[in-house]
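Entry: Transporter
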Amino acid sequence: MLFVQVVLPVFLIVCTGIMLEKTARLDFRTLTISSLYVFCPALVFSALMKREFELTLAGDLFLFMVLYTAALYGFSWLIARAAGFDRESRSALLLTTVMMNVGNFGLPLTFFAFGEAALEVSVLTFVLFNIPLGTLAIVIAQGSRGSLSTALLNMAKIPIFHGVALAFLFKMLDWVPPTFLLRPIDLVGQAAIPVMLLMLGMQLARTKWQKRVGFLSLATLTRLAVSPLLAWGLTVLLDIKGLPRSVVILQTSTPSAVLPLLYALRFGVRPDLVAGTILTTTLVSAGTLTLLLYLLTPQ
Protein backbone atom coordinates (compact mmCIF):
# COMPACT_ATOMS: atom_id res chain seq x y z
CA MET A 1 0.00 0.00 0.00
CA LEU A 2 2.93 2.38 0.60
CA PHE A 3 3.78 2.22 -3.08
CA VAL A 4 0.21 3.11 -4.07
CA GLN A 5 -0.20 5.85 -1.45
CA VAL A 6 3.24 7.50 -1.60
CA VAL A 7 5.43 6.50 -4.54
CA LEU A 8 2.78 6.03 -7.26
CA PRO A 9 1.32 9.58 -6.92
CA VAL A 10 4.80 11.00 -7.50
CA PHE A 11 5.29 8.97 -10.67
CA LEU A 12 1.76 9.79 -11.92
CA ILE A 13 2.55 13.51 -11.85
CA VAL A 14 5.95 12.85 -13.47
CA CYS A 15 4.19 10.88 -16.22
CA THR A 16 1.82 13.81 -16.71
CA GLY A 17 4.87 16.00 -17.28
CA ILE A 18 6.18 13.50 -19.82
CA MET A 19 2.86 13.53 -21.69
CA LEU A 20 2.75 17.33 -21.62
CA GLU A 21 6.22 17.49 -23.14
CA LYS A 22 5.32 14.94 -25.83
CA THR A 23 2.01 16.54 -26.80
CA ALA A 24 1.87 20.22 -25.82
CA ARG A 25 5.58 21.12 -25.93
CA LEU A 26 5.25 23.72 -23.18
CA ASP A 27 7.83 26.45 -22.70
CA PHE A 28 10.23 24.68 -20.34
CA ARG A 29 12.35 27.79 -19.77
CA THR A 30 9.37 29.78 -18.50
CA LEU A 31 8.41 27.02 -16.08
CA THR A 32 12.00 26.78 -14.85
CA ILE A 33 12.27 30.51 -14.21
CA SER A 34 8.87 30.57 -12.49
CA SER A 35 9.86 27.69 -10.24
CA LEU A 36 13.32 29.06 -9.46
CA TYR A 37 12.34 32.68 -8.86
CA VAL A 38 8.77 32.43 -7.53
CA PHE A 39 7.40 29.05 -6.45
CA CYS A 40 10.41 27.55 -4.64
CA PRO A 41 11.43 30.71 -2.73
CA ALA A 42 7.80 31.17 -1.67
CA LEU A 43 7.60 27.56 -0.46
CA VAL A 44 10.84 27.86 1.53
CA PHE A 45 9.89 31.20 3.10
CA SER A 46 6.35 30.08 3.96
CA ALA A 47 7.43 26.75 5.46
CA LEU A 48 10.08 28.36 7.67
CA MET A 49 7.82 31.22 8.79
CA LYS A 50 4.93 28.94 9.78
CA ARG A 51 7.01 26.77 12.09
CA GLU A 52 9.22 27.27 15.10
CA PHE A 53 12.76 27.07 13.80
CA GLU A 54 15.13 24.77 15.69
CA LEU A 55 18.76 25.85 15.46
CA THR A 56 19.94 22.51 16.82
CA LEU A 57 18.12 20.62 14.09
CA ALA A 58 19.46 22.98 11.42
CA GLY A 59 22.99 22.45 12.73
CA ASP A 60 22.57 18.67 12.70
CA LEU A 61 21.20 18.72 9.16
CA PHE A 62 24.03 20.97 7.99
CA LEU A 63 26.61 18.61 9.47
CA PHE A 64 24.75 15.68 7.90
CA MET A 65 24.93 17.41 4.50
CA VAL A 66 28.68 18.03 4.78
CA LEU A 67 29.54 14.49 5.94
CA TYR A 68 27.15 12.83 3.49
CA THR A 69 28.47 14.79 0.51
CA ALA A 70 32.13 14.26 1.46
CA ALA A 71 31.72 10.52 2.11
CA LEU A 72 29.75 9.88 -1.07
CA TYR A 73 32.21 11.94 -3.10
CA GLY A 74 35.14 9.94 -1.72
CA PHE A 75 33.40 6.60 -2.32
CA SER A 76 32.38 7.49 -5.88
CA TRP A 77 35.83 8.82 -6.73
CA LEU A 78 37.49 5.62 -5.49
CA ILE A 79 35.21 3.27 -7.42
CA ALA A 80 35.60 5.41 -10.55
CA ARG A 81 39.38 5.11 -10.26
CA ALA A 82 39.12 1.39 -9.56
CA ALA A 83 36.91 0.95 -12.64
CA GLY A 84 39.47 2.79 -14.78
CA PHE A 85 37.15 5.58 -15.91
CA ASP A 86 38.63 8.52 -17.79
CA ARG A 87 38.28 12.04 -16.38
CA GLU A 88 34.99 12.80 -18.15
CA SER A 89 33.37 9.51 -17.12
CA ARG A 90 34.65 9.95 -13.57
CA SER A 91 33.09 13.40 -13.41
CA ALA A 92 29.83 12.01 -14.81
CA LEU A 93 29.77 9.37 -12.07
CA LEU A 94 30.35 11.98 -9.36
CA LEU A 95 27.61 14.22 -10.75
CA THR A 96 25.06 11.41 -10.79
CA THR A 97 25.88 9.77 -7.45
CA VAL A 98 26.78 12.66 -5.14
CA MET A 99 23.94 14.90 -6.37
CA MET A 100 20.45 13.55 -5.69
CA ASN A 101 17.05 14.92 -6.74
CA VAL A 102 16.33 16.38 -3.31
CA GLY A 103 13.94 19.01 -4.72
CA ASN A 104 11.85 17.97 -7.73
CA PHE A 105 11.52 14.41 -6.43
CA GLY A 106 12.46 14.54 -2.74
CA LEU A 107 10.11 17.30 -1.57
CA PRO A 108 6.95 15.75 -3.06
CA LEU A 109 7.95 12.27 -1.92
CA THR A 110 8.46 13.27 1.73
CA PHE A 111 5.27 15.35 1.65
CA PHE A 112 3.21 12.39 0.42
CA ALA A 113 4.94 10.07 2.89
CA PHE A 114 4.84 12.15 6.07
CA GLY A 115 2.51 15.09 5.38
CA GLU A 116 2.70 18.70 6.58
CA ALA A 117 4.61 17.70 9.71
CA ALA A 118 7.66 16.87 7.59
CA LEU A 119 7.69 20.12 5.64
CA GLU A 120 10.15 22.01 7.88
CA VAL A 121 12.74 19.21 7.79
CA SER A 122 12.29 18.51 4.08
CA VAL A 123 12.57 22.21 3.18
CA LEU A 124 15.73 22.57 5.28
CA THR A 125 17.17 19.47 3.65
CA PHE A 126 16.26 20.86 0.23
CA VAL A 127 17.93 24.19 0.97
CA LEU A 128 21.09 22.70 2.50
CA PHE A 129 21.69 20.21 -0.30
CA ASN A 130 21.34 23.00 -2.83
CA ILE A 131 24.71 24.22 -1.51
CA PRO A 132 26.75 21.35 -3.04
CA LEU A 133 24.34 21.24 -5.99
CA GLY A 134 25.07 24.89 -6.73
CA THR A 135 28.83 24.75 -6.03
CA LEU A 136 30.48 21.34 -5.95
CA ALA A 137 28.50 20.09 -8.95
CA ILE A 138 29.73 23.03 -11.02
CA VAL A 139 33.31 22.49 -9.88
CA ILE A 140 33.11 18.79 -10.81
CA ALA A 141 31.69 19.58 -14.25
CA GLN A 142 34.06 22.40 -15.14
CA GLY A 143 37.15 20.67 -13.75
CA SER A 144 40.18 22.95 -13.93
CA ARG A 145 38.34 25.46 -16.11
CA GLY A 146 36.73 27.35 -13.24
CA SER A 147 37.18 28.32 -9.62
CA LEU A 148 35.30 27.59 -6.41
CA SER A 149 34.87 31.31 -5.79
CA THR A 150 32.94 31.67 -9.06
CA ALA A 151 30.74 28.71 -8.12
CA LEU A 152 30.07 30.22 -4.68
CA LEU A 153 29.15 33.54 -6.28
CA ASN A 154 26.72 31.79 -8.61
CA MET A 155 25.19 29.95 -5.65
CA ALA A 156 24.60 33.23 -3.81
CA LYS A 157 22.36 34.29 -6.70
CA ILE A 158 19.98 31.34 -6.22
CA PRO A 159 16.66 32.84 -5.01
CA ILE A 160 15.80 30.09 -2.52
CA PHE A 161 18.72 31.23 -0.36
CA HIS A 162 17.25 34.73 -0.36
CA GLY A 163 13.98 33.27 0.92
CA VAL A 164 15.84 31.46 3.71
CA ALA A 165 17.79 34.58 4.67
CA LEU A 166 14.61 36.65 4.81
CA ALA A 167 12.81 34.07 6.95
CA PHE A 168 15.79 33.86 9.33
CA LEU A 169 15.91 37.65 9.59
CA PHE A 170 12.22 37.91 10.46
CA LYS A 171 12.59 35.10 13.02
CA MET A 172 15.55 36.87 14.65
CA LEU A 173 13.57 40.13 14.80
CA ASP A 174 10.55 38.20 16.09
CA TRP A 175 8.41 39.85 13.42
CA VAL A 176 5.59 38.09 11.60
CA PRO A 177 4.53 39.63 8.27
CA PRO A 178 0.85 40.58 8.04
CA THR A 179 -1.67 38.02 6.86
CA PHE A 180 -2.32 39.80 3.56
CA LEU A 181 1.34 39.09 2.66
CA LEU A 182 1.68 35.59 4.11
CA ARG A 183 -1.44 34.18 2.45
CA PRO A 184 -0.44 34.86 -1.17
CA ILE A 185 3.13 33.72 -0.48
CA ASP A 186 1.82 30.49 1.05
CA LEU A 187 -0.57 29.94 -1.87
CA VAL A 188 2.18 30.51 -4.45
CA GLY A 189 4.50 28.18 -2.52
CA GLN A 190 1.94 25.37 -2.71
CA ALA A 191 2.40 25.35 -6.47
CA ALA A 192 6.10 24.48 -6.14
CA ILE A 193 5.71 20.75 -5.49
CA PRO A 194 3.43 19.84 -8.44
CA VAL A 195 5.30 22.18 -10.80
CA MET A 196 8.66 20.61 -9.89
CA LEU A 197 7.29 17.13 -10.61
CA LEU A 198 5.86 18.25 -13.94
CA MET A 199 9.22 19.77 -14.83
CA LEU A 200 10.96 16.52 -13.90
CA GLY A 201 8.67 14.63 -16.26
CA MET A 202 9.26 17.14 -19.04
CA GLN A 203 13.03 16.85 -18.58
CA LEU A 204 12.88 13.05 -18.58
CA ALA A 205 10.89 13.16 -21.83
CA ARG A 206 13.84 15.00 -23.37
CA THR A 207 16.37 12.52 -22.03
CA LYS A 208 17.82 9.86 -24.32
CA TRP A 209 18.87 6.64 -22.63
CA GLN A 210 22.38 5.44 -23.45
CA LYS A 211 23.24 1.75 -23.19
CA ARG A 212 26.33 1.73 -21.01
CA VAL A 213 25.44 -1.17 -18.70
CA GLY A 214 28.63 -1.10 -16.62
CA PHE A 215 28.52 2.63 -15.89
CA LEU A 216 24.76 2.73 -15.35
CA SER A 217 24.83 -0.27 -13.00
CA LEU A 218 27.63 1.22 -10.91
CA ALA A 219 26.01 4.66 -10.74
CA THR A 220 22.55 3.26 -9.95
CA LEU A 221 23.86 0.96 -7.24
CA THR A 222 25.75 3.82 -5.59
CA ARG A 223 22.87 6.30 -5.80
CA LEU A 224 20.03 3.99 -4.74
CA ALA A 225 21.74 1.42 -2.49
CA VAL A 226 24.93 2.87 -1.04
CA SER A 227 23.56 6.35 -0.34
CA PRO A 228 20.60 5.15 1.83
CA LEU A 229 23.00 3.04 3.91
CA LEU A 230 25.31 6.02 4.32
CA ALA A 231 22.40 8.30 5.28
CA TRP A 232 21.14 5.75 7.78
CA GLY A 233 24.55 5.45 9.40
CA LEU A 234 25.02 9.23 9.61
CA THR A 235 21.67 9.71 11.36
CA VAL A 236 22.83 7.21 13.99
CA LEU A 237 26.22 8.94 14.29
CA LEU A 238 24.63 12.40 14.64
CA ASP A 239 21.79 11.12 16.84
CA ILE A 240 19.08 12.36 14.48
CA LYS A 241 15.89 10.58 15.52
CA GLY A 242 12.17 10.43 14.87
CA LEU A 243 10.58 12.20 11.92
CA PRO A 244 13.72 14.21 10.97
CA ARG A 245 15.63 10.93 10.65
CA SER A 246 13.03 9.37 8.34
CA VAL A 247 12.73 12.51 6.21
CA VAL A 248 16.45 13.06 5.68
CA ILE A 249 17.11 9.39 4.85
CA LEU A 250 14.23 9.22 2.37
CA GLN A 251 14.93 12.58 0.75
CA THR A 252 18.63 11.85 0.18
CA SER A 253 17.94 8.39 -1.26
CA THR A 254 16.20 9.79 -4.32
CA PRO A 255 17.34 9.43 -7.96
CA SER A 256 20.13 11.44 -9.55
CA ALA A 257 19.51 15.19 -9.77
CA VAL A 258 18.51 16.75 -13.09
CA LEU A 259 20.44 20.02 -12.75
CA PRO A 260 23.91 18.40 -13.21
CA LEU A 261 22.78 17.38 -16.71
CA LEU A 262 22.77 21.09 -17.62
CA TYR A 263 26.30 21.40 -16.22
CA ALA A 264 27.40 18.31 -18.15
CA LEU A 265 25.99 19.78 -21.37
CA ARG A 266 27.59 23.15 -20.67
CA PHE A 267 31.08 21.75 -20.00
CA GLY A 268 30.97 18.66 -22.23
CA VAL A 269 31.28 16.11 -19.40
CA ARG A 270 29.66 13.00 -20.90
CA PRO A 271 26.06 14.29 -20.92
CA ASP A 272 25.03 10.96 -22.47
CA LEU A 273 26.08 9.10 -19.32
CA VAL A 274 24.55 11.70 -17.00
CA ALA A 275 21.22 11.66 -18.87
CA GLY A 276 21.12 7.88 -18.97
CA THR A 277 21.78 7.62 -15.25
CA ILE A 278 19.07 10.17 -14.38
CA LEU A 279 16.52 8.18 -16.36
CA THR A 280 17.67 4.79 -15.03
CA THR A 281 17.79 5.82 -11.36
CA THR A 282 14.38 7.47 -11.62
CA LEU A 283 12.80 4.28 -12.96
CA VAL A 284 14.59 1.92 -10.54
CA SER A 285 13.81 4.17 -7.56
CA ALA A 286 10.15 3.13 -7.72
CA GLY A 287 11.26 -0.15 -6.15
CA THR A 288 14.09 1.03 -3.88
CA LEU A 289 12.11 3.91 -2.37
CA THR A 290 9.11 1.67 -1.70
CA LEU A 291 11.38 -0.75 0.18
CA LEU A 292 12.96 2.12 2.09
CA LEU A 293 9.53 3.46 3.05
CA TYR A 294 8.61 0.09 4.54
CA LEU A 295 11.80 0.15 6.60
CA LEU A 296 11.21 3.73 7.78
CA THR A 297 7.49 3.48 8.51
CA PRO A 298 6.41 1.87 11.81
CA GLN A 299 4.30 -1.19 11.13
